[in-house]
Amino acid sequence: MSVMWKRFYPALRIKYLTDLKPDDFHARGVKGVLLDLDNTLVEWGQVEVSPKTLAWVEEMKKSGLKMCIVSNALEERVKVVGKKLGIPWVSQGIKPRKTPYRKALALLETTPGETATVGDQLFTDVWGGNRMALFTVWMTPLSTKELFFTRIARRLERFVAKQLRKKGIISE
Ligand SMILES: [Mg+2]
């Protein structure tokens, strides 16, 4: 496993958003959390937020954490979810490029060292977060429905995940 794969290492692996407790962030000095949209906050291509996710966002906000959606999706849909959750958003982001993250950090007024990111894809969310030196959390996608190109990327992702498990970086 060469150094080149390190960019895809998540700091934390979770199954559900609700696996994350406010203290997981506070204990690490995290003040802001950047959330992916598709297959993280909502099922792919949707705008419906489950009551569990809604309650989770509320719990995080109440604990003092600032949150922002960072998505590659179009403005219209990202905006709907941002408004539902009462948090700011950055849309049409082209993750893993740094621009959308920089915009989100400016909105939350946090530094990379005090910011975490949660997303379901290694090659956009984790890579992008690592490029920005954020605390990266990799989550199991909410649904199996996704873009054709994402499905292709998943094959490579599965390969990387296998290496991560071998190295003991993630356990499942
Ligand atoms: Mg996603």
List the helices and strands and how they pair.
Elements: E1 12-14, H1 22-26, E2 32-35, H2 51-62, E3 66-70, H3 75-85, E4 89-90, H4 99-108, E5 115-119, H5 122-131, E6 135-139, H6 148-166
Parallel strand pairs: 1-6, 2-3, 2-5, 3-4, 5-6
The protein binds magnesium ion.
Largest sheet: 6 strands, parallel
Number of strands: 6
Overall pLDDT? 93
Total number of domains: 1
User: Which structural category do the helix and sheet elements fall into?
Assistant: alpha/beta
User: Mind telling me which CATH architecture this is?
Assistant: 3-Layer(aba) Sandwich
Number of helices: 6
CATH homologous group name: HAD superfamily/HAD-like
Query: How does the overall form come out from the CA principal axes?
Result: globular
Q: How would you sum up this structure in a few lines?
A:
The protein has 172 residues and is of the alpha/beta class.
Task: Identify the notable features of this structure and list them briefly.
172 residues; alpha/beta; Rossmann fold; 39% helix
Structure write-up:
The mean pLDDT is 93. The longest helix has 19 residues, at 148-166. The protein has 172 residues and is α/β, with parallel strands linked by helices. It has helices at residues 22-26, 51-62, 75-85, 99-108, 122-131, 148-166, and strands spanning 12-14, 32-35, 66-70, 89-90, 115-119, 135-139. α3 (75-85) links the parallel β3 (66-70) and β4 (89-90). Magnesium ion (MG) binds next to loops.
